[in-house]
Amino acid sequence: MEVDPDEGLRKQRTKRFDVANALKENEGRKGARLYLSKEIQYTVAPESRLQHHSEDLQHVSRIQMDNRKFNSMTSKAQQPEIISREELKTESKWLKLEKIKWRDQDGKERMWEAANRATRSKAGVDSVHILALLHHPSRPVSTIIIEQYRPPIGSAVVELPAGLIDEGEDAATTALRELYEETGYGSGKAGQGNAEVGQVSSVLVKDPGMTGANMNLVTVNVELGANDPEPDQHLEPGEHIIRRVVPLKELYSRLQNYAERGFAVDALVASIAMGMELSKSESF
C-alpha cells in the first residue's frame, strides 16, 4: 500500500488547531460551532485544502477578539468617585483625620478613614525624597542614607534624606536645601561639592490605603574633589540625624545588614536597592 509521506504532518497540524478553546471562549456563538464542523471535515482533507487551516485560525482569532470586546463593554463597571470628605476634629497641628464617603465600582456607597498632612503647599505636593549620587575622582559612585528615630515606628529608621516642601518652593529647590541641611553636601563650597538636580519624578504616593500623603523623588548629582573632607551637617534644633555614605553597588547588602541589626528600613530606599539588585540578575 502506498504511504502518503505528508499524512503525519497534516494530522499534526490538524491536532494543533484547537477549536475547542475557541468554543470555550465563545460558547453560544454560531460562528465557532460552524468552524468546529469545518475542522472535522479537514481531518480527512487532501493537501490542497490544508491552506484553509491558517484562514480558519485567523477567523477564530477574530471571533475571540470580538468576544473580548463584547465582554468588556457589557461588564464595564462605573468609575469609583468621592462623594464627600469630612474632617474629624482633633488637636493635631501637623495632621488631619478625614472620613471619606465614596462610591465603588458597583455603585455602593462606602466609608473610609484617612490621615493626611495639614501642611501641604499650594503646589499640591507634601515632600521630597533625595537620591544623592556622589561622584568622586577615585571612588565608586556613592549615595547617602540617614538614620533617624521615628516615634510612629518606635525605632530608628534607615531612609533617604527628605523634607517637606515649603510654600513657594518647587521640588528641586527643596531637594537642594534639605540635602545641604541634613547631609552637608551640595553648597558648592570647598568640601561640600557642587550639586545639580538630575531628575524630578512625577508625584508619587506612599501607603495609599491609609493616607493621601505624596512626594517627589529627586536625584541630585554631587561632584566632589579628590581631597574633599566630609562636610558638616546643618541640622535644625531637635533634629538628630546620622548621615551615612554608601557605595551605590553595596546599598542592598547594607540595608539587609541594617534590618538584621533591628533597624526599620524605609520602603522607598529598599525598593530602589532591590531594583538595582534585580537588574544584576541574568534573567533580566
Structural topology:
Blueprint (H helix, E strand, L loop, with lengths): L6 H10 L2 H7 L4 H13 L9 H23 L6 E8 L6 E9 L5 E9 L9 E10 L2 E12 L4 E5 L2 E3 L6 H13 L10 E7 L3 E2 L8 E10 L18 E6 L3 H10 L3 E2 L1 H13 L5
Parallel strand pairs: 4-10, 6-12
Antiparallel strand pairs: 1-2, 2-3, 4-5, 4-7, 5-6, 5-11, 8-10, 9-10
Notable characteristics:
Nucleoside Triphosphate Pyrophosphohydrolase, 9-stranded mixed sheet, globular, 3-stranded antiparallel sheet, alpha+beta
Textual characterization of the structure:
The structure is a single chain. The protein is an alpha+beta fold and 284 residues long. The chain folds into three domains: 7-73; 81-117, no CATH class; 127-279, Nucleoside Triphosphate Pyrophosphohydrolase, CATH 3.90.79. Helices cover 31% and strands 29% of the residues. The chain contains seven helices and twelve strands. The protein has helices at residues 7-16, 19-25, 30-42, 52-74, 171-183, 251-260, 267-279, and strands at residues 81-88, 95-103, 109-117, 127-136, 139-150, 155-159, 162-164, 194-200, 204-205, 214-223, 242-247, 264-265. Strands 4, 5, 6, 7, 8, 9, 10, 11 and 12 form a nine-stranded mixed β-sheet that branches. The radius of gyration is 31 Å and the shape is globular.
